[in-house]
Design goal:
Elements lengths: L4 E7 L3 H12 L4 E4 L11 E4 L2 E4 L17 H9 L3 H4 L1 E3 L2 E6 L5 E5 L3 H11 L4 H13 L12 H6 L5 H13 L10 H14 L2 E3 L3 H14 L3 E3 L4 E7 L2 E7 L4 E9 L3 H7 L5 H5 L6 E9 L11 E7 L13 E9 L14 E9 L2 H4 L3 H20 L7 H7 E7 L1 H8 L23 E3 L8 H23 L1
Parallel strand pairs: 1-2, 1-12, 2-9, 6-14, 12-18
Antiparallel strand pairs: 3-4, 5-8, 6-7, 10-11, 11-12, 13-16, 13-17, 14-15, 15-16
Helix pairs in contact: 1-9, 1-16, 2-16, 7-8
Amino acid sequence: MKDSHYDVAIIGAGMSGLAAGIRLAHFGQKVCIFERHNAPGGLNSFYSMAGRKYDVGLHAMTNYVAPGVKGTPLVKLLRQLRIEREEFALCPQKQSRIAFGPRGETTLKFTNDFAVLDAEVAAKFPAQAAGWRRLVALVRTYDDVSLDAKPLSAREVVAQHISNPLLADMIFCPVMYYGSAQERDMEFGQFVIMFKALFLEGFARPLEGVRVIIRVLLDKFRSAGGERRMKCGVQRITEEQGRAARLVLDDGSEVTAKHVISSVGYPETMRLCGPVHTAEADANTGALSFIETISVFNRQPAEWGWGDDTIIFFNDSDRFEYAQAREQVDTRSGVICLPNNFDFGSDRLPEGIFRVTCLASYERWAHLPEEQYQADKQQWFEAAVRSARRFLPGVDDTVLAAAQVATDMFTPRTIKKFTGHLNGAIYGAPRKIRNGRTHLQNLYLCGTDQGFLGIVGAMLSGISMANYHVLQSSTRG
C-alpha cells in the first residue's frame, strides 16, 4: 500500500520538480513526486514515434561552460545535486547566429566564447560599441538570483545603453524566444538570466538529447530514496487554516504533507486550490505559445551547406514583435535548430534533423475539429519550414523531399494536453513569483513561474525553493 503522508509532496516531475526532490531526499526528507503523465521531464521531455525518439522543448541546454570554470549556474547545479559533469555528457555547439532581414541580410554570430559576439557587435554596429560594453558590464554585475528584486523593464534598461533599434531587437530575439513569458518586453532580471545563459555562457546538448538529463535525474532521485508516482496527478489542494492540508489525487485518494512544492505553474496551482482562486489565476496566465516542426532526413544537413549553425534566430520584419500570434502561426520570426551541429567529436546523429519554432495562438488551435486540425497542421508545417529556409543556404525542394523520412509537429493544443499549461503557455505566467510563496503557508512554487529560466534554471529553481522553504526552515525549527 502506498504511503499517505510525506515530509514534502512535489507536484510535477519536470526538471524543477525532480531537482527539488533530489535535493530534499539527500537531506533525509520523505519525498514523493506526483506526475499526471507517464513520462517525466515536463516541458523538456521526449516521446517515441515509429521507432524514433523526439525531444520536446530541448533545442540546446543553455548555461554551458567548459570544464574548470567556477561559480556558474551549471557548476552550482552539479554540486547541489551531486552529479558528476561527465554524467550529462554535454557536447558544445559549433556556432549560432541571429539573422534579421527578409533573407537574413544582417547577422550576428555567437559561440560559447563571448568574444565572438562582442567582436560581431563592434564590427556591425560600431557606433553602439560603447553602449554595448556598458550593457554587458551591467549584466555581469547584476544580481539576477535575488528573490526580492524590484521589477524593471528590460526594454527601458537596454534603451539606456543601446540606441539602435535593430541591434536592440537582435539582442532581444534569442533572449525572448528562449525564456520570456511577457509580450514585447521582459523583466530585467529575467533578461539578465537569459543573456548570461545564451551569450556569456553558451549552448550544449548530449548526443542522445534530453533523455540523458532525465535519466540522470531519475537515477539520483531513486538512489536518494525518493518516491515517484506516475500517471497520478493532483486534482485538488484542500486548504485548512491557511495551509495545504491534503492533496486529492486523480483517483480520488488523498495524501498529506508537511510541505507542498508545485512545479506546474502559478495559475495552474491556484486553480488546484479551488474556484475562489480562478480570477487570481486568470490575471496571471501567459498568452505566448508556439508551434514546432520537426523534419528528419536520411542525409546530414552539412551535405546541403547547413553544417555550421546550431541555432538560428530569425526575423524578416523591420521590427521584431514578440507577441501572441494574430493568426494560427506567425512565421515572420522564429528559431531554427539543427541538432546535428553540436560538436559530438567522433560521434554523430544517425539522421539529419531540422526543427523550426514559431509563435502561435492557442485560441486559434484549441477548439478545431480533428479533421480541420490535421489539415491546418500540414498547412502551417509547410509555411514555417518555407519561412525558415530563407535563412539557410538554398536547397532544391525535390532534393529535400527525396531525403525526408519523417516529420512531426506540435501545436499549442499539444502543449496544453501534455503539460497542463493554460493557453499552452510554455514559459508560464508573465509575472513571476521569485520567492515562490503562495497564499498558503506550506505551498510553494518552483520552476517556470518562480522565474529561473532554461533547463539549468529550472533545476536551480527546484533546488533553491527546496533549500529556502524546506531545508532552511527545518534547520531553523
